[in-house]
Amino acid sequence: MSITRLLDRAGHWFLYSGIQEPSGGVARYYRADLDRNEPISTEITGYAVSAFLYLHFLGSGTEYLERAARATEFLLGEAWDASARTFLFECTGPPRLAYFFDCGIIVRALLAAWRTWRDDQLLSAAVACGRSMIRYFGSEGGRIHPIFSLDDERAAVYEPHWSRAPGCYQLKAALAWYELSEETGDAVFAREYCRQLELALENQREFLPGHPDRHRVMDRLHAYCYFLEGLLPHAREVRCAEALAKGVVRVATHLGRIAPSFARSDVYAQLLRIRCFADQAGVLSLNWRAAREEACKIAAFQLTDADRRKDGGFAFGRKGGAPIPHVNPVSTAFGLQALAMWEQHCSGSARTDWRMLI
Predict the structure, then answer these.
(1) Contacts 24+ apart (CB under 8 A), 240-247
(2) Which pLDDT value is given to residue 141?
(3) Is residue 3 part of a domain?
(4) Residue 105's domain is classified under what CATH number?
(5) Residue 134 included in any domain
(6) Residue 27 domain flag
(7) How many domains is the chain partitioned into structurally?
(8) Each residue's pLDDT tens digit, 169-214
């Protein structure tokens, strides 16, 4: 099957599977084993906005713009906490929590939408949330608190799981500050991104493997790729270029060892995207053989099924060779972008700016 056909099917899944609910919000994933969506996630809705806009960029019809608009309306309405000037983790009631990573993904999505429509409401919300991210999640030592309780007005206690403790992975969310500095000229945002860049470069070596359980290491590969993605604005700087080059090798090595027992589709997609972006930046020549293998593995995660809730979506992963029954919007978004970038490289027309990174 051609990559163009794979992309069309992935876009069709986003439009017609029901993963985007009538409110405009997008479910965390579809549970094929239970025949239902998981609850709406504000973070995943942000990712979906970026995915819809990217699908439109690839040359598809206006329906993707309409769906992106519905998702942004949900974010600016139900997901926005006007008193706290930030986006809620979930909209289902107490506790009122905000996540640094989620806010960064949403701000980047709103900025992508603003660059499309030039609606000042989008930019205003992005700026307000960006400032709240500094206020709520910063610490005296410069580390980022992952979770903030809006009810208690204090940071949540750190936990062992990577997403509930500070780490280099937060650099991807900090891209929101970098983009805000570009769009507004506010040096405060640029300063905050650069602070996180320095911290991430210092502590990233400790992040992998980070756990004795190989399956947990696979999860951490996903997070480590967020760090590599967060380097992209400074990819040509010596330390960042070195971290990208070494990071790609580290991820590929761990992935190859662990994948026979547990493989996440998003890790394959993130790795291929990083390879393509780094090649475009001129800091790491594309390993064509490895990239081709990764593209084939990514495509193999796309589902073919008579049920529209599954067909065209990407499975979260496999354990012991059996698919995990989660049809995942982030896996689908990352997978379709990785395959589109791979196709562009193969045709000699690579042109994706890092700001379009989903």
Answers:
(1) 240/197, 240/201, 240/283, 241/283, 241/284, 243/201, 243/204, 244/274, 244/278, 244/283, 244/284, 245/278, 245/283, 245/284, 247/204, 247/274
(2) 83
(3) no
(4) 1.50.10.20
(5) yes
(6) no
(7) 2
(8) 999 999 999 999 999 999 999 999 999 999 999 999 999 999 999 9
